[in-house]
Amino acid sequence: MAQHTFPFPLPSLITNDNLKNIPIATLPKFYGLATKDLDTFLFEFDILYHSFDYKTNSHKLKLFLTTLRELTLRWFMGLGTNATCTWDSIFGEIQRVLQSN
């Protein structure tokens, strides 16, 4: 695996799937706050994901990581480089953390 200086897992180092150019303004933003319902966010995210005809979980993970803001971004950065960086592991961990708050 390539060496990097970021202290969090980078999915671009794990797979060679490329994302399409998506205008940043169209991405839903996930702050992880109580005022932002996870189900509502995931509905918005799925609409975007499918509208760009993505097929794989690695595409989904890369796109999802671009939506993280504030609390959720700090949480992700705190995972460290040894974290398993797959859609199932990251999404499952976010669900677990949000349900415990």
The percent range for strand residues is under 5%
So how many helices? 4
Beta strands, count: 0
Radius of gyration: 13 Å
Mean pLDDT: 75
Fraction of helical residues:
40-55%
Largest sheet: none
Secondary-structure class: mainly alpha
Low-confidence stretches: none
Spell out the helices and strands N to C: HHHH
Shape assignment: globular
What is the CA-CA span between the terminal residues? 35 Å
Q: How would you briefly describe this protein structure?
A:
By secondary structure, the protein is an all-alpha fold. It has 4 helices and no strands. The chain is 45% helix and 0% strand.
Structure description:
The chain has helices at 38-51, 57-65, 70-77, 87-100. The chain has a domain at 31-100. The chain is globular. It is built from four helices and no strands. The chain starts with 37 loop residues before the first helix and ends with a helix. With 101 residues, the protein is mostly helical. Helix 2 (57-65) packs across helix 4 (87-100).
